[in-house]
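Help!! Second protein's tokens look totally different from the first
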Amino acid sequence: MPQRTTTLPITLALLISISGCGQDPPRRLRTGDGRILGHVIGWVTLDGKPLAGAQVDFMNKVTRRSSSGTDENGRYELKFNRKLRGAPTGDHSVRIGLFGNDAADPAAEPLPAIYNANTILKTTVREGYNVINFHLTTPGAGQVAELGPVVGLVLLDGKPLVGARVEFTSEKSDSGSGSGIGMTDKRGRYQLVFTEKRPGAAIGHNHVRVFKPDANGKETLRPLYNAKTMLSQFVESEKNDFPISLTSIVGSGAEKTPQPKVPSDSR
């Protein structure tokens, strides 16, 4: 008797990536009543440093809030409810606070009211994967006196590295605390911001770190590119375009210290 071959149709959901993050999107993108959700992750910094233990709330006019706490790296991932990740698509106001972190006065809020009670933060969530970062400042906080705009391309083994976090930190001890931070898009391109109103990185010599954690938060890139970075760049006052070429871990044999390479014009 001849064998019968059954072909099962496969439907692929095409998700738009607004920031090029390389992780897989959540399986469910709709609520029980049909509202469309976008998957939202990001990083929160305060005066250029990761803000840990903060509450991040996205709110719009037609549905409930979506919330998340930040981890030790300032990373958050919104949840709509206990079962669904993400936030409804559309415009949102955003509140960020350290609510209840002061044991002596649980009602005290150390962050400026413009980030919570009287928030000025707004953003738009789109269907698919969203990487939305917030770079906050406190009144009177030290900031670098001069910044230079910084963009660039990150390659891993010659291919664009999507969804990586790029940090430039000044080598000058008197330049003020803070880092220029950016995320690579689907083309591997990044643009640094120092605060929500100041793009770029400190002028002068900068240590460069590149991070690409997996879904469980484990770093996938070599320590030479982040924890024990050997990368550096000199930022000038005019436009800076820095390509960063990385390599994967070599499984065997002697390994030489990798150096950042500038891709040729033909690439």
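Here's the second one for comparison:
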Amino acid sequence: MQIVLRLSINIFVLSAAVSSIACYEAAAIGDDQPAAQGFDQKVAAERWHTRVIELDRILAKDPDNRRAFSERGDCHFFLGHFPQALSDYDQMTGDNPREIAGNWRRGIALYFCDRFQESASQFDAYHTIDQIDRENGIWRYLADTRSLGIPAARKNLLEYKKDDRPPFSDLYLLFAGTRTEQNLLDQFQLGRDAGNSPESFYLRLYLGFWCDSQDLSPQAISHLTLATADGWPQRAGYGPNFMWHVGRLRLDQLRQKLESDPIPKPE
């Protein structure tokens, strides 16, 4: 999710998120950038594990080091240790209500922990400090679909009046039910190959999550595969890099689910 440089966003949340780039860089040295073609998950996992141990030592000496909690939370999240990531994101913000509201990573961690009502509440809180970012509204919808079902999630969609960065205004209409998957593919001229732009990455990422919310696992896998092969997130900064990992982790889950419970072939 994009870290927006607006005055309404709490400065600590921004600085804490930026500090977590060190965790990402610990798994991306030289050519080991997080793209599907060059990402070595085994090597990355070893580096994240090593960094977690280092951060454990830092926090043992300095238990109030919020940047260390932020970075360790990201390492845990990238490793798929979602409860541990959630714990670190909670400790990162402390008891400050505004910092808690701006902690969108906490909302995503709650989603991956299957704590969907709490996840939706986190994205509700984020909406109180940013009424432009429809990516937040998409995550609120995704959480609601898991706890309330699609009709209620659509009815409860957060409202936005101001324009958002491309392609989120158009994507949001998909979740509202007024656009279709094919509409967006045609509008943005997305082919069968991976793209190399913010629009192609976010469209594929959230088309994947939209299909996932509809229990269309093969289509979700197709979109998420192209999202994680997109060349843009690896050079775009912290937020896109984090969301690349969100796509990677969900793609891994869907592939494992499909392998354990394959779709029956038609007779």
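Reply: Different proteins will give different token patterns, so don't panic. Residues 2-35 have pLDDT under 50 and may be disordered.
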